[in-house]
Design a protein that fits this description.
about 250 residues; alpha+beta; Alpha-D-Glucose-1,6-Bisphosphate, Chain A, domain 4; seven-stranded antiparallel β-sheet; 5 helices; 13 strands; about 25% helix
Length: about 250
């Protein structure tokens, strides 16, 4: 049975309203911290899209008031698959911004676990937005998003992940690490995010995310900042790594 829901999140960001707007309401800005490849037609009634692999989710801009309010929706209101997002940007006297997100829509039979997964996911992505605005704002980006069926519980997820990345043991935020994924070059950086479902590492040129998602899906969601990056080649390499490390037969 489907279920209506509403989710609210907020974060304080070290950025101006215009910088936050650029990050949340333009295709290149969204590419810089969120999943997939995105497009936004800059007007109320404009079209939006998010493409991950062969799948594209299309929507419509329902509010366009830069740099304070941006909203969009996909699917038919009240129908299965309907999702709506509203972003509110509030400037503060200390030079920061308060960003509020309201997501609402329709979830399926397993709505409680889906709702929990959405909340957990937004905590990670809003942190990622803050990292982008602090360290990489305005730099060219290549988003890398690949997924594979994987370890169904954290007891399998973390040992496989640490083994696949060449980590000798547990890590914590602010730890310096050197990742050695097979088939890719070494990655040296600092751990900027850890949760039961996620490992995040920031380097001089990238934000790397390894995520255990809903129903045991495992995903790689990286953002590589720089020119002359072959996104298709990088995605193929990470897809091959992901499938090796999280093969269901292990």
């Amino acid at each position: 049975m489907s279920h209506e829901f509403e989710l609210r999140k907020e974060i304080t960001l070290e950025a101006t309203p215009e910088q936050v707007w650029e990050a949340i309401a333009t295709g290149p800005g969204i590419d810089s911290w969120f999943m997939g490849r995105n497009q936004v037609e800059p007007r109320e009634g404009g079209r939006t899209s998010m493409t991950i692999g062969a799948y594209t989710d299309e929507g419509t801009v329902t509010a366009w008031d830069p740099p304070s309010r941006f909203a969009l929706q996909s699917g038919a209101p009240g129908g299965e698959g309907f999702m709506a997002f509203e972003w509110l940007i509030e400037s503060r006297d200390d030079g920061t911004c308060l960003l509020r997100l309201v997501q609402s829509g329709i979830l399926g039979d397993d709505w409680e676990s889906e709702y929990d997964a959405l909340g957990t996911g937004w905590e990670m992505y809003l942190h990622l937005l803050g990292q982008y605005l602090t360290w990489f704002r305005g730099r060219a980006v290549t988003p890398v998003t690949v997924m594979a069926p994987g370890a169904a519980d954290p007891a399998e997820f973390w040992p496989r992940l640490r083994g696949g990345l060449g980590l000798g043991g547990e890590v914590a935020e602010s730890d310096k690490v050197r990742l050695t994924p097979e088939g890719l070059g070494p990655i040296e950086g600092v751990v900027d995010y850890v949760s039961p479902q996620t490992l995040g590492v920031r380097t001089e040129d990238g934000l790397f995310r390894f995520v255990r998602g809903h129903n045991g899906m495992v995903a790689v969601g990286h953002h590589l900042y720089g020119d002359d990056i072959d996104g298709d080649e990088v995605e193929r390499a990470w897809q091959a790594w992901l499938e090796r490390v999280f093969a269901t037969s292990q």
